[in-house]
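TASK: fixed-backbone design
INPUT:
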Protein backbone atom coordinates (compact mmCIF):
# COMPACT_ATOMS: atom_id res chain seq x y z
CA UNK A 1 0.00 0.00 0.00
CA UNK A 2 2.88 2.36 0.79
CA UNK A 3 4.16 2.00 -2.78
CA UNK A 4 0.71 2.48 -4.29
CA UNK A 5 0.26 5.71 -2.34
CA UNK A 6 3.75 6.86 -3.38
CA UNK A 7 3.07 6.17 -7.05
CA UNK A 8 -0.28 7.94 -6.94
CA UNK A 9 1.40 10.84 -5.16
CA UNK A 10 3.92 11.27 -8.00
CA UNK A 11 1.16 11.37 -10.61
CA UNK A 12 -1.07 13.63 -8.54
CA UNK A 13 1.67 16.12 -7.72
CA UNK A 14 2.79 16.38 -11.32
CA UNK A 15 -0.78 17.38 -12.25
CA UNK A 16 -0.26 20.51 -10.15
CA UNK A 17 1.72 21.90 -13.08
CA UNK A 18 -1.50 23.22 -14.59
CA UNK A 19 -1.79 25.54 -11.58
CA UNK A 20 1.82 26.08 -10.60
CA UNK A 21 3.14 27.03 -14.00
CA UNK A 22 0.43 29.66 -14.44
CA UNK A 23 2.02 31.77 -11.70
CA UNK A 24 4.41 34.60 -12.54
CA UNK A 25 8.05 33.53 -12.47
CA UNK A 26 10.07 35.70 -10.32
CA UNK A 27 35.13 -4.53 3.32
CA UNK A 28 35.03 -5.48 -0.20
CA UNK A 29 37.37 -3.76 -2.64
CA UNK A 30 35.72 -1.15 -4.77
CA UNK A 31 36.10 -1.23 -8.53
CA UNK A 32 39.04 0.77 -10.01
CA UNK A 33 39.44 4.56 -9.58
CA UNK A 34 38.73 6.39 -6.41
CA UNK A 35 35.62 8.23 -5.31
CA UNK A 36 35.71 10.43 -2.22
CA UNK A 37 34.15 8.81 0.81
CA UNK A 38 32.31 11.05 3.27
CA UNK A 39 33.38 10.90 6.93
CA UNK A 40 31.94 8.30 9.24
CA UNK A 41 31.49 10.20 12.50
CA UNK A 42 27.70 9.80 12.64
CA UNK A 43 26.29 6.35 11.83
CA UNK A 44 23.73 6.11 9.05
CA UNK A 45 20.22 4.95 9.80
CA UNK A 46 19.54 1.29 9.03
CA UNK A 47 18.20 0.77 5.52
CA UNK A 48 14.41 0.52 5.27
CA UNK A 49 13.52 -1.50 2.21
CA UNK A 50 9.84 -1.80 1.30
CA UNK A 51 8.35 -5.21 0.61
CA UNK A 52 9.10 -6.06 -3.04
CA UNK A 53 6.53 -6.58 -5.75
CA UNK A 54 6.95 -9.49 -8.18
CA UNK A 55 9.00 -8.15 -11.07
CA UNK A 56 8.52 -10.72 -13.79
CA UNK A 57 5.51 -12.54 -15.21
CA UNK A 58 4.60 -15.95 -13.82
CA UNK A 59 6.15 -19.10 -15.13
CA UNK A 60 9.81 -18.27 -14.42
CA UNK A 61 11.14 -21.38 -12.74
CA UNK A 62 14.27 -22.16 -10.77
CA UNK A 63 15.50 -23.98 -13.85
CA UNK A 64 15.05 -20.79 -15.89
CA UNK A 65 17.05 -18.82 -13.34
CA UNK A 66 19.76 -21.50 -13.33
CA UNK A 67 20.08 -21.08 -17.10
CA UNK A 68 20.51 -17.36 -16.60
CA UNK A 69 23.24 -18.00 -14.03
CA UNK A 70 25.05 -20.15 -16.59
CA UNK A 71 24.73 -17.35 -19.15
CA UNK A 72 26.32 -14.71 -16.91
CA UNK A 73 29.07 -16.87 -15.39
CA UNK A 74 32.50 -15.49 -16.26
CA UNK A 75 31.26 -12.95 -18.81
CA UNK A 76 32.40 -9.33 -18.87
CA UNK A 77 29.58 -6.83 -18.46
CA UNK A 78 29.29 -3.02 -18.33
CA UNK A 79 27.83 -1.05 -15.42
CA UNK A 80 27.39 2.47 -16.81
CA UNK A 81 27.67 5.63 -14.71
CA UNK A 82 26.38 8.66 -16.67
CA UNK A 83 28.87 10.96 -14.91
CA UNK A 84 32.63 11.27 -14.57
CA UNK A 85 34.42 9.55 -11.70
CA UNK A 86 34.22 10.97 -8.22
CA UNK A 87 30.54 11.79 -7.70
CA UNK A 88 27.80 10.10 -5.71
CA UNK A 89 26.49 8.01 -8.60
CA UNK A 90 29.99 6.77 -9.33
CA UNK A 91 30.46 5.85 -5.67
CA UNK A 92 27.24 3.83 -5.60
CA UNK A 93 28.16 1.82 -8.70
CA UNK A 94 31.70 1.12 -7.51
CA UNK A 95 30.30 -0.17 -4.24
CA UNK A 96 27.69 -2.29 -6.03
CA UNK A 97 29.85 -3.80 -8.80
CA UNK A 98 31.69 -6.43 -6.68
CA UNK A 99 28.41 -7.59 -5.16
CA UNK A 100 26.72 -7.86 -8.54
CA UNK A 101 29.64 -10.08 -9.54
CA UNK A 102 29.06 -12.14 -6.40
CA UNK A 103 25.39 -12.71 -7.21
CA UNK A 104 25.49 -12.96 -11.03
CA UNK A 105 28.91 -14.50 -11.72
CA UNK A 106 29.70 -11.80 -14.32
CA UNK A 107 32.63 -9.38 -14.12
CA UNK A 108 30.97 -5.95 -13.92
CA UNK A 109 33.24 -3.23 -15.33
CA UNK A 110 32.38 0.32 -14.24
CA UNK A 111 32.09 2.52 -17.33
CA UNK A 112 31.88 6.29 -16.85
CA UNK A 113 30.03 8.02 -19.71
CA UNK A 114 29.58 11.69 -18.75
CA UNK A 115 27.87 14.39 -20.77
CA UNK A 116 24.82 16.64 -20.95
CA UNK A 117 23.86 16.21 -17.32
CA UNK A 118 23.72 12.37 -17.62
CA UNK A 119 21.84 12.25 -20.95
CA UNK A 120 24.78 10.82 -22.93
CA UNK A 121 25.30 7.84 -20.61
CA UNK A 122 21.55 7.26 -20.32
CA UNK A 123 21.26 7.15 -24.11
CA UNK A 124 24.08 4.61 -24.26
CA UNK A 125 22.37 2.24 -21.85
CA UNK A 126 19.07 2.60 -23.72
CA UNK A 127 20.68 1.76 -27.09
CA UNK A 128 22.74 -1.20 -25.84
CA UNK A 129 22.14 -4.83 -26.78
CA UNK A 130 19.30 -6.10 -24.53
CA UNK A 131 21.27 -9.19 -23.57
CA UNK A 132 21.63 -8.18 -19.92
CA UNK A 133 25.34 -7.43 -20.17
CA UNK A 134 24.86 -3.66 -20.02
CA UNK A 135 23.15 -1.99 -17.08
CA UNK A 136 23.35 1.54 -15.71
CA UNK A 137 22.38 3.80 -12.86
CA UNK A 138 20.06 6.69 -13.73
CA UNK A 139 19.48 10.15 -12.32
CA UNK A 140 15.72 9.63 -12.14
CA UNK A 141 14.62 13.22 -11.54
CA UNK A 142 17.02 14.70 -14.07
CA UNK A 143 16.27 12.36 -16.96
CA UNK A 144 12.52 12.57 -16.28
CA UNK A 145 12.69 16.34 -16.56
CA UNK A 146 14.86 16.09 -19.69
CA UNK A 147 12.36 13.79 -21.41
CA UNK A 148 9.34 15.86 -20.38
CA UNK A 149 10.89 19.05 -21.71
CA UNK A 150 12.22 17.49 -24.96
CA UNK A 151 15.76 18.46 -24.00
CA UNK A 152 18.18 18.32 -26.92
CA UNK A 153 19.98 14.98 -27.18
CA UNK A 154 17.40 12.80 -25.42
CA UNK A 155 17.21 9.46 -27.26
CA UNK A 156 15.51 7.34 -24.60
CA UNK A 157 12.01 6.69 -23.31
CA UNK A 158 12.07 6.37 -19.54
CA UNK A 159 8.94 4.19 -19.59
CA UNK A 160 10.62 1.54 -21.80
CA UNK A 161 13.79 0.76 -19.83
CA UNK A 162 14.06 -2.67 -18.19
CA UNK A 163 14.12 -1.85 -14.47
CA UNK A 164 16.18 -3.93 -12.03
CA UNK A 165 14.99 -1.73 -9.15
CA UNK A 166 15.61 1.56 -7.39
CA UNK A 167 18.54 1.58 -4.99
CA UNK A 168 17.89 4.82 -3.12
CA UNK A 169 16.57 8.36 -3.02
CA UNK A 170 18.42 11.25 -1.41
CA UNK A 171 17.96 13.80 1.31
CA UNK A 172 18.76 17.00 -0.54
CA UNK A 173 20.33 20.38 0.26
CA UNK A 174 20.96 23.83 -1.10
CA UNK A 175 24.47 24.90 -0.11
CA UNK A 176 26.43 28.16 -0.36
CA UNK A 177 30.11 28.97 -0.01
CA UNK A 178 31.40 29.90 3.43
CA UNK A 179 32.89 33.09 1.93
CA UNK A 180 29.92 33.84 -0.31
CA UNK A 181 27.58 36.81 -0.02
CA UNK A 182 24.51 34.75 0.86
CA UNK A 183 24.32 33.16 4.31
CA UNK A 184 20.70 31.97 4.35
CA UNK A 185 17.82 31.12 2.05
CA UNK A 186 16.09 34.29 3.19
CA UNK A 187 19.09 36.33 2.00
CA UNK A 188 18.52 34.91 -1.49
CA UNK A 189 14.77 35.55 -1.34
CA UNK A 190 15.45 39.20 -0.51
CA UNK A 191 18.20 39.69 -3.10
CA UNK A 192 17.55 42.16 -5.92
CA UNK A 193 20.34 40.72 -8.09
CA UNK A 194 20.14 37.34 -9.80
CA UNK A 195 21.48 34.48 -7.70
CA UNK A 196 23.90 32.16 -9.55
CA UNK A 197 22.83 28.53 -9.21
CA UNK A 198 25.02 25.76 -10.67
CA UNK A 199 24.32 22.24 -11.97
CA UNK A 200 26.06 19.64 -14.15
CA UNK A 201 23.54 20.08 -16.97
CA UNK A 202 19.89 20.47 -18.00
CA UNK A 203 19.47 16.69 -17.65
CA UNK A 204 20.47 16.71 -13.97
CA UNK A 205 18.26 16.64 -10.90
CA UNK A 206 20.25 19.58 -9.53
CA UNK A 207 19.07 21.66 -12.49
CA UNK A 208 15.35 20.95 -12.25
CA UNK A 209 15.30 21.24 -8.45
CA UNK A 210 17.17 24.54 -8.54
CA UNK A 211 14.81 26.08 -11.07
CA UNK A 212 11.58 24.86 -9.46
CA UNK A 213 12.65 25.80 -5.92
CA UNK A 214 13.99 29.22 -6.92
CA UNK A 215 10.80 30.12 -8.78
CA UNK A 216 8.65 28.79 -5.92
CA UNK A 217 10.51 30.97 -3.41
CA UNK A 218 10.61 34.07 -5.60
CA UNK A 219 14.41 33.97 -6.08
CA UNK A 220 15.76 35.62 -9.23
CA UNK A 221 17.95 32.92 -10.75
CA UNK A 222 20.88 32.76 -13.16
CA UNK A 223 21.26 29.04 -14.01
CA UNK A 224 24.85 28.02 -14.86
CA UNK A 225 25.46 24.51 -16.27
CA UNK A 226 28.15 22.57 -18.15
CA UNK A 227 30.03 20.84 -15.33
CA UNK A 228 30.89 17.13 -15.55
CA UNK A 229 29.95 16.20 -11.97
CA UNK A 230 28.40 17.86 -8.94
CA UNK A 231 31.79 17.96 -7.18
CA UNK A 232 32.95 20.51 -9.78
CA UNK A 233 29.89 22.62 -9.06
CA UNK A 234 30.64 22.52 -5.33
CA UNK A 235 34.20 23.72 -5.97
CA UNK A 236 32.87 26.57 -8.11
CA UNK A 237 30.63 27.61 -5.19
CA UNK A 238 33.59 27.50 -2.79
CA UNK A 239 35.66 29.65 -5.19
CA UNK A 240 32.86 32.19 -5.46
CA UNK A 241 32.14 31.58 -9.15
CA UNK A 242 28.64 30.43 -8.18
CA UNK A 243 26.41 31.40 -5.27
CA UNK A 244 24.52 28.19 -4.55
CA UNK A 245 23.93 24.64 -5.71
CA UNK A 246 21.62 21.73 -4.99
CA UNK A 247 22.73 18.19 -4.26
CA UNK A 248 22.52 15.15 -2.02
CA UNK A 249 23.48 15.40 1.63
CA UNK A 250 25.85 12.41 1.35
CA UNK A 251 27.83 14.02 -1.48
CA UNK A 252 28.28 17.28 0.43
CA UNK A 253 29.31 15.94 3.85
CA UNK A 254 33.10 16.43 3.34
CA UNK A 255 32.76 20.13 2.46
CA UNK A 256 30.15 20.71 5.14
CA UNK A 257 32.49 19.16 7.73
CA UNK A 258 35.45 21.23 6.50
CA UNK A 259 33.39 24.41 6.64
CA UNK A 260 33.85 25.22 2.93
CA UNK A 261 30.11 24.86 2.29
CA UNK A 262 27.15 25.94 4.41
CA UNK A 263 23.73 24.29 4.13
CA UNK A 264 20.94 26.86 3.88
CA UNK A 265 17.97 24.63 2.98
CA UNK A 266 17.07 20.94 3.17
CA UNK A 267 14.31 18.98 1.46
CA UNK A 268 13.28 15.35 1.27
CA UNK A 269 11.25 12.87 3.27
CA UNK A 270 12.54 13.83 6.71
CA UNK A 271 14.77 16.33 8.47
CA UNK A 272 18.48 15.49 8.60
CA UNK A 273 19.46 14.84 12.21
CA UNK A 274 22.92 16.39 11.76
CA UNK A 275 21.41 19.67 10.48
CA UNK A 276 18.78 20.61 13.07
CA UNK A 277 19.06 24.35 12.42
CA UNK A 278 18.79 24.18 8.64
CA UNK A 279 15.20 24.94 7.57
CA UNK A 280 13.04 22.46 5.69
CA UNK A 281 11.76 23.62 2.32
CA UNK A 282 8.17 22.65 3.12
CA UNK A 283 8.25 24.66 6.37
CA UNK A 284 9.28 28.01 4.87
CA UNK A 285 6.87 30.91 5.38
CA UNK A 286 5.37 33.18 2.75
CA UNK A 287 5.16 30.67 -0.07
CA UNK A 288 2.24 31.09 -2.47
CA UNK A 289 -0.09 28.26 -3.42
CA UNK A 290 1.54 28.22 -6.85
CA UNK A 291 4.95 28.00 -5.21
CA UNK A 292 3.81 25.13 -3.02
CA UNK A 293 2.71 23.33 -6.18
CA UNK A 294 6.18 23.70 -7.73
CA UNK A 295 7.81 22.48 -4.52
CA UNK A 296 5.52 19.44 -4.54
CA UNK A 297 6.57 18.65 -8.10
CA UNK A 298 10.28 18.88 -7.23
CA UNK A 299 9.81 16.55 -4.27
CA UNK A 300 7.75 14.07 -6.31
CA UNK A 301 10.39 13.88 -9.06
CA UNK A 302 12.98 13.21 -6.37
CA UNK A 303 11.10 10.10 -5.29
CA UNK A 304 12.05 8.41 -8.59
CA UNK A 305 15.54 8.42 -7.13
CA UNK A 306 18.39 6.33 -8.50
CA UNK A 307 17.11 3.32 -10.43
CA UNK A 308 19.33 0.66 -12.01
CA UNK A 309 18.18 -0.30 -15.51
CA UNK A 310 18.98 -2.38 -18.56
CA UNK A 311 17.96 -1.56 -22.15
CA UNK A 312 14.40 -2.17 -23.34
CA UNK A 313 13.65 -5.71 -24.42
CA UNK A 314 15.58 -7.79 -21.87
CA UNK A 315 13.85 -11.15 -21.50
CA UNK A 316 11.63 -11.68 -18.45
CA UNK A 317 13.80 -14.45 -17.03
CA UNK A 318 17.02 -12.49 -17.46
CA UNK A 319 15.51 -9.35 -15.94
CA UNK A 320 14.22 -11.36 -12.99
CA UNK A 321 17.69 -12.86 -12.47
CA UNK A 322 19.24 -9.38 -12.47
CA UNK A 323 16.58 -8.00 -10.15
CA UNK A 324 17.24 -10.80 -7.66
CA UNK A 325 20.99 -10.14 -7.87
CA UNK A 326 20.52 -6.42 -7.23
CA UNK A 327 18.23 -7.04 -4.26
CA UNK A 328 20.65 -9.58 -2.76
CA UNK A 329 23.50 -7.11 -3.26
CA UNK A 330 21.61 -4.36 -1.44
CA UNK A 331 20.82 -6.74 1.44
CA UNK A 332 24.37 -8.08 1.77
CA UNK A 333 25.78 -7.26 5.25
CA UNK A 334 29.16 -6.31 3.80
CA UNK A 335 27.61 -3.79 1.41
CA UNK A 336 25.44 -2.37 4.19
CA UNK A 337 28.52 -1.89 6.33
CA UNK A 338 30.28 -0.08 3.46
CA UNK A 339 27.45 2.32 2.74
CA UNK A 340 26.90 2.99 6.44
CA UNK A 341 30.48 4.22 6.67
CA UNK A 342 29.88 6.49 3.68
CA UNK A 343 26.60 7.93 4.98
CA UNK A 344 24.63 6.26 2.19
CA UNK A 345 21.29 4.50 2.61
CA UNK A 346 19.36 1.82 0.74
CA UNK A 347 15.77 2.81 -0.08
CA UNK A 348 14.89 -0.08 -2.36
CA UNK A 349 12.01 -0.40 -4.79
CA UNK A 350 11.40 -3.54 -6.84
CA UNK A 351 11.59 -3.73 -10.61
CA UNK A 352 7.82 -3.40 -11.00
CA UNK A 353 7.49 -0.52 -8.53
CA UNK A 354 10.45 1.42 -9.93
CA UNK A 355 9.07 1.00 -13.44
CA UNK A 356 5.59 2.14 -12.40
CA UNK A 357 6.98 5.20 -10.62
CA UNK A 358 9.03 6.18 -13.68
CA UNK A 359 6.00 5.79 -15.96
CA UNK A 360 3.97 7.99 -13.63
CA UNK A 361 6.74 10.58 -13.74
CA UNK A 362 6.61 10.93 -17.53
CA UNK A 363 2.85 10.49 -17.79
CA UNK A 364 1.91 14.13 -18.34
CA UNK A 365 -0.51 15.34 -20.95
CA UNK A 366 0.87 17.29 -23.92
CA UNK A 367 -0.49 20.52 -22.41
CA UNK A 368 1.20 19.87 -19.06
CA UNK A 369 4.48 18.98 -20.78
CA UNK A 370 4.35 22.24 -22.74
CA UNK A 371 3.91 24.25 -19.56
CA UNK A 372 6.85 22.55 -17.89
CA UNK A 373 8.95 23.11 -21.00
CA UNK A 374 8.11 26.80 -21.03
CA UNK A 375 8.98 27.10 -17.35
CA UNK A 376 12.39 25.41 -17.47
CA UNK A 377 13.52 26.70 -20.85
CA UNK A 378 13.48 30.26 -19.55
CA UNK A 379 16.81 29.47 -17.91
CA UNK A 380 19.32 29.28 -20.74
CA UNK A 381 22.68 27.83 -19.64
CA UNK A 382 25.43 30.43 -19.42
CA UNK A 383 28.37 28.00 -19.40
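OUTPUT:
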Amino acid sequence: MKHIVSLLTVAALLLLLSVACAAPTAAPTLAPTQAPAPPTAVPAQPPQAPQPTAAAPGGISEADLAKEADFFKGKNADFVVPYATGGGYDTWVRVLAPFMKKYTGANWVVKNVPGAGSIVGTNQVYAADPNGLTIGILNGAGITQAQLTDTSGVQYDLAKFSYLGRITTDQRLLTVGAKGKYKSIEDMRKATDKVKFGAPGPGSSNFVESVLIAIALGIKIDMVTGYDVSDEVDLAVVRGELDVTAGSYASKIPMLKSGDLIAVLQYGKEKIADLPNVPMLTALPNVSDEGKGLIAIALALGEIGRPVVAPPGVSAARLKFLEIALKKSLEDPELLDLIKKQKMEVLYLSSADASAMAKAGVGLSSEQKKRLQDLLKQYTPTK
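COMMENT: The chain has a mean pLDDT of 84.
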